[in-house]
UniProtKB/TrEMBL annotation:
<dbReference type="InterPro" id="IPR029063">
    <property type="entry name" value="SAM-dependent_MTases_sf"/>
</dbReference>
<feature type="domain" description="Methyltransferase">
    <location>
        <begin position="45"/>
        <end position="135"/>
    </location>
</feature>
<dbReference type="InterPro" id="IPR041698">
    <property type="entry name" value="Methyltransf_25"/>
</dbReference>
<dbReference type="GO" id="GO:0032259">
    <property type="term" value="P:methylation"/>
</dbReference>
<dbReference type="GO" id="GO:0008168">
    <property type="term" value="F:methyltransferase activity"/>
</dbReference>
<keyword id="KW-0489">Methyltransferase</keyword>
<dbReference type="InterPro" id="IPR050508">
    <property type="entry name" value="Methyltransf_Superfamily"/>
</dbReference>
<keyword id="KW-0808">Transferase</keyword>
<protein>
    <submittedName>
        <fullName>Class I SAM-dependent methyltransferase</fullName>
    </submittedName>
</protein>
<dbReference type="Pfam" id="PF13649">
    <property type="entry name" value="Methyltransf_25"/>
</dbReference>
Amino acid sequence: MVDKDAVRRSYDELTDAYAAQRTEDGRDAALLTTFLDSLPDSPRVLDAGCGRGTPVLSRASAKGDAVGLDFSRGQLRAAAENAPGASLVRGDMAALPFADDAFDAVVAYWSLIHLPADEHPAVLDEFARVLRPGGRVLLSEGTTAWDGENPDWLDTGVPMEWSIAGAAATREHLREAGFAVVDEWGTRSSLKADRAEEAEDRTPWTFFAARLES
Ligand SMILES: C[S@@+](CC[C@H](N)C(=O)[O-])C[C@H]1O[C@@H](n2cnc3c(N)ncnc32)[C@H](O)[C@@H]1O
């Protein structure tokens, strides 16, 4: 099972390597644009696991009042440069330091997959708590459940860990947290390095858009 402190330490070291691999024009960026355009005017958006603040936080802050949350100091330092209009908060997605009903939308791109799968329902409960009724969520998960680690992620010598609940479980967790799933898409990775490995499997990742029912 994922060691969250180890994940946090690794992201502190990996900010630049991750940035070099992260695509800004993939399917996830297109889904984000459509999602942000569908929100009410000047939305208050939480980017949960905001990383280095792009592409999600910078685009959300151009649309309205954006808050980026991450537990890695290294990633938050980069986010302050890449999304200067956003507020930044250091914290754990499993215990959000925000009031109830504080946001119109939550985006969680490639972040839920780093928490232990048995914490994913609690994270979705937290998203529901901080969203106003009718609020929206857009998040990514792995399509198939797996747990794993890479001792040399992105050829950096830095280890990384993942815990994937899978699309079927996530669909059910969203429902249990009070969300209605509005749409879902299978996608490739947003990392250049993963593309060749994923040649055989075109949808190893699933994105969900959901609405909080009252
Ligand atoms: C793969 S990066 C994705 C960053 C960004 N969302 C993107 O789309 O490029 C995962 C991010 O989630 C953060 N993260 C992982 N687990 C977290 C947790 N429990 N609480 C807060 N942030 C977390 C990591 O520090 C990292 O910045």
